[in-house]
## 1
Amino acid sequence: MTMITIPMIILIWIIYGWFLKTSSNKAFNWSSWIFLLLVLSIILNIDFSTNYTASLNLVANDGISLRGVWSHLFISDKNWSVSTFYNYYRLSSYTSLTLMFLLIVSLIYDRYKSKDM
């Protein structure tokens, strides 16, 4: 999944930049906020530890994990079980997909709203 993460952020950034460039409204609109939330949710989904197969090994031999820190803050189960990580990963994936859908809808809305003005 992480092999797809960085190209996905770049692709979303290119698509968003194209929509913003072609739109006459350069204001910081709804799509800008949703885009930032989407990138944040994707970044928080990257696992920097070396203990998991889906990890992005940016910190060698270290257990630092944004996903682990995030789940430690918001999930009451502190046993660090596989199910805890799986449930968080599934939740964050659904969040990313939902934000991606909202981004597409808001880009279309902002674009047609700016054409009406």
## 2
Amino acid sequence: MRALRLIFLGALGMVAGCGGCESCFGKPEAGDDAAFTTTATTPDAGAKEAAAESPREEDAGAEAAAPAATAATPLPQIARPKLPKSMAVGAFQSCGVYDGPLCEKTCEKGACRQECDGVNCELSCKGGYCSQLCGPVATCKLSCPGGHCVQVCSKPEGCTKDCAGGDCE
């Protein structure tokens, strides 16, 4: 009971103008020997101190226009080859550092897509019309005997492409 009373009195001591008088709490008990002190402040005191400080102007537009020093290398966008009307969209594979040192995908029917970063990737597209996106920390190999395949690499020296038949990019 005493602990709750102490907490309540302490909380009221924070309210401006309340000193915890006997009219609110009654007479103190024999074992109550804690003394409470309160400090009253005017609400305008904090505002005057804040106004005394020089205002700091910020321009969010200027900050957004400045390039970030730690901007990540953006992955290039890849356009899928236009599929013939009779061909359905094939499988999709995305590989990263947690998928292992090598990601392999064999696409028998064609129209498959593979995106890799941080690993070695190999895509074999026998049906053609496949696309491969290779990030800046990956090495990629695209084998496309069916033709009409697209390979986009962030780091061209890490990519090889073998394309037979049709136009390949």
## 3
Amino acid sequence: MAELKGNERVLDIGCGTGRLSLMLFTLLDNGFIYGMDLSSKMVKQARRETRRNGCKINYEVGNSKRLPYKSEVFDVVFTSLMYNHLTYEEKQETLREIHRVLKPTGRYISAEFGPFPDDFFHRMFIRLTRNSGILHGLYPPDLVEAADFDVVQQMDGPLLGWHHPITYRVSRRDL
């Protein structure tokens, strides 16, 4: 789904230990990878893994609600299993920031938890936990469009664990 050409400037938000950043590095010939995470421990571990693998990736500590980058500098922005750590409002702020740092022709690629399956167990779970805060990790399908992105490709992946599918989306800035 990424369809990288090899010369892009790529941002991995919520990079964690850098596993996705390292994988993306192998797909770029002349591009640049930037990884950012809120956790300094994760960034430290990502830097260690990157050095161990002989890769050049720029990692830094930062908040997705206020990305420490200039506007319109990235060709591609990735997030992977990050939104479950954010409230609804933080997701909105993050998407506005992603839109800001993407070039006008840029793409946003996400692999995030999709909606719960529509069965009795999950309907009951949602009903019982509605006000607990546990559901703040769900990724509302219309959130990306509301942030002025056009979803150009979407694919639902396999269930992760026993209750959550992963939804993969490729979005473009709505000009």
## 4
Amino acid sequence: MCFELPIVFNFPLFADISDPMPENPQPDSPEPPKLDSPEPDIQGPRSASFFAELKRRKVYRVAVAYAVVAWLIIQIASNTFSSFGIPDWVFRFVVIGLILCFPVAVILAWAFDITRDGVKLTSPVNGKATKAKGTSNKKSWLSVSLAAAAPTLIFGGLATYFYLGADDAADSGLGADKLYYIGSLAVLPIQVISGDDEDAAFAVGLHEELLTQLSGMDPLSVASRTSTLKYRDQSKGIREIGKELGVEYVVEGSLQLVGSQWRLTLQLIETNSDRHLQARSYDRDRQSDNVLLLQKQIAWEAAIDTYIHLKEENPPKGMRGERYGAAISEMKDELEELEVRFWADANRTLGEEALSKARKIIAASPDDSDIHVKYLTILGQLPHLFVSHEGWRAEMMLAIDHALRLSPEHFDTYVHSGGFYLIAEHRPNKALPLLQKGLKLYEENGDFSHNWPYYHLSSAMHLTGKSAAALEVLKRVPIEPEFGQMLYWEGPYELTRRFEEGMAFMRGQLDKAIEVGDAKAQLDIAYTIARFESYWSGSNQPIESFYENEIENLLLSHAFEAELLFILGDYAGYLREAALIDPSSDPYASNAGDSMINRAIALRESGNEQLAYSYMQNTIRGMESNPFIFELIPGTAYASIGVLNAMIGNEQAARDAIEKSEASLDPSRDLPLYYMANGILAFAYSELGEVEKACEKLDIMLSGPTGSCTGRLMLDFEDSELGRTPQFEAVIRKHVDQLRDPEILDTYFVE
């Protein structure tokens, strides 16, 4: 019997001759060392042995692989986490985790091997540097790969978790009901640094308007005005205010009077860190005619600056950001459909629906520049609001500010802004630079779909005394003009008294109208040619011939015929046709043929003075009840009231109106209107019997670009007392160059 002793080392302590031979004996195996002999140090000194052991255990390889992969993870995380909706603190957690896990990876690399038989402790070095049975001659690359992949798997999974869970977390928070949520903020009362009670009242209104503007931006949650008023006179810190109101940001500011301007200074502050994110100043003229509009303009500019900065801090991201983008895109498609229908029908209801849809998009995406331009474009074209609607004018001014602020390089921004100031505000000097830039951008864009930038600019030019330049602009139109747009050519030719050139152009257009069979265009263009011919010759014969040729034309409406009869002096015929005008169906009803002044003149000339005076008084009352007209065209409005009062016999009222007209004349605002007002004043002075002043005004009118010219005045005053005075003849002869044949004066002025 033999006893089997335990194995203490990797060789038996004793061997019994009765033991069986091993199955696979090793030939020529060296005799094992004696138990009491020391193990030789085959690795050299202790320090060299340690680094050699690191190398043997492949710790260097694992450390390098870990460092490379960790660096890649940090780079990827820094560039992608925000796009996937992963909070900033997660990125910091990843970096710290990678650093802390590095020694763990090194220790694991030292202690373990991954072998064919599984994970095992790394065997120690024996005297001959042999390895345990079952291990490979060198460490498997699988261990290195696993060490490198570990941080990727851990932190990749963490990133995925936060990406998928970010929306659920957000949806359960304060902005759960919003397509896109930036954060919460409070607007503290604005402090007045210098000024009086007016400045304090302005600051209160500005605070309320700023709250209104920010509250209208859906991605923001704004604390109520009531909750912020208590901080007007308190000196609490921003952190404390943020905690009390439960907001992430605070807007605070001050108002001071600097010279003749208000200066609003605002700061945007993050409450948890008391960090200033933004500071801006806004200067405005204190002497404003519309304080409420001024407050809206300043408040919106401050609100959009705040919104844009906060959006940059918290952009739409993750799955929620994708849903937000899809919702905005869907609303834009709906707006596009409404726009197409609106432009096709010019329908009031469709226009209001389109504006409503645009407002919803702006509320959801306040800084969307394209939608602001669309809003301006649609608003400017609503027929029922055009020119006289005060609320519309204020809204247009705000829309212009918004579009210019957010889309300063879009040609439509300038074309529609300039068109508003040109037509609705009658301020061609302000419109001119806007329209010039609009046309420049339009031509640079190269997508020529219409001629309107050219038409608006040419109109502004001839209204500012640049009629020759206006014609040059019209010659650049990229699209063949429509017949209904001939008015844009007619004005510059008439204002520059280039009648011969204008008639040649119109005859070419008439040939085109005949070629395509457009009967209405033929009628309109033929009438323009007749008028030009009449003004150039100083004779009504061309208009008489036109009327005779078109008398049977079914397109010659009652309003059109009334205008012709008034020009020709057939007042009874004029009154007959004017009584038959149907404004709802007559395309020429807006012409002068149906004006109350013309009816009053026709009644007086026909001998019905009592009814004529009644019409004149009604006209005066109607004009005086509309203050907008005195804001828009004060010179001509007061001059017209002066003429009517003079015709009625109200001399003092006439002189008062004339004085107001003289005081409000401003050639720098609208040059043709300035000359036109002088022409109307000439009629007023004529009615008052002041021949010298009347002729002085006529001389001024003929010296500038107006629709009135020498030939037209000869027709207007042919049978009047003024037309037979030497002063009138002197004025006409002074401007004889505006006539085709000066010799006509020899037969016109006869004893």
